[in-house]
């Protein structure tokens, strides 16, 4: 039985999880339990076929039976509204008291155009949430996410921000479907990154054969990405999300904004991978594309396959000689979209 629950609080939180339910490619997310919580009965009418809970503005009580037989709970709260700001903490506390092992709270801060009062309300809620022990808290600023898409109209920017948050929420789900779940391969990480890569492939760089040849039917395939204003920061963020010890094959895609990485930044790739435990004998394929929409920032996508045995070998890894070359590398620079 699927023991994952998505619980949306307030208009913003409910909208996000409803959108997630409709667009996700993963059946174990689509078939999870969804609970919609709000103080507005009219808004709750939009969500049919799932449990809807109308909150009492004068009481912080919450029905504990909601959390029966749940192993992982993901709460999505729009913290600039009344419901999200006032009920995120008591609902999280009720979930903790019910004994749920894994609780993720995704707090969504609003736009500056919503007014100073709403921004202050969301920040006050954020400070309270940080004092709740036993939960994993992730905060996303809708305004900053939407700013990345400043060349489109505001409604399209909000939609793109929603999509980005949905991708992040999918990555929080810890339980995978049994068997193979991406083109015949079992993947740990954000599978949509692979879909994006395949959909935007052309004949000038890494192609579908390179991607499929990197993955292993028997191995532990991992996908992760990192983003930052600094090339090394983006790379280390992506590497930090993977188990790279015993890596046999590695595919790296670097997406640059207006600024291309310097020679010294490119030279840092090998030491970073070596420190992460990638063997000098690993097969590495490297591709660089340019997308000016990223501005001065960088994005790194890593696809790796590891030996099936000893999947639990994490922890500190002795760094190898950073001057050595890692396997055979394919290196191309091209303009494109990511």
Q: Please, could you describe this protein's structure?
A:
By secondary structure, the protein is an alpha/beta fold. It folds into two domains: about 5-170, 3-Layer(aba) Sandwich (Rossmann fold); about 185-335, 60s Ribosomal Protein L30, Chain: A (2-Layer Sandwich), CATH 3.30.1330.20. Helix 1 (about 10-25) crosses helix 7 (about 155-170) and helix 4 (about 80-95) runs parallel beside helix 5 (about 115-130). The chain has twelve helices and twelve strands. The protein has helices at about 10-25, 25-30, 40-45, 80-95, 115-130, 140-145, 155-170, 190-200, 210-215, 230-240, 265, 270-275; strands spanning about 5-10, 35-40, 50-55, 70-80, 100-110, 135-140, 185-190, 220-230, 245-255, 285-290, 300-305, 335. The model is unreliable at about 310-325 (pLDDT under 50). It is about 35% helix and about 25% strand. The chain has a six-stranded parallel beta sheet, with helices on both faces. The protein has a six-stranded mixed beta sheet with strand order 7-8-11-9-10-12. Strand 5 (about 100-110), helix 5 (about 115-130) and strand 6 (about 135-140) form a beta-alpha-beta unit.
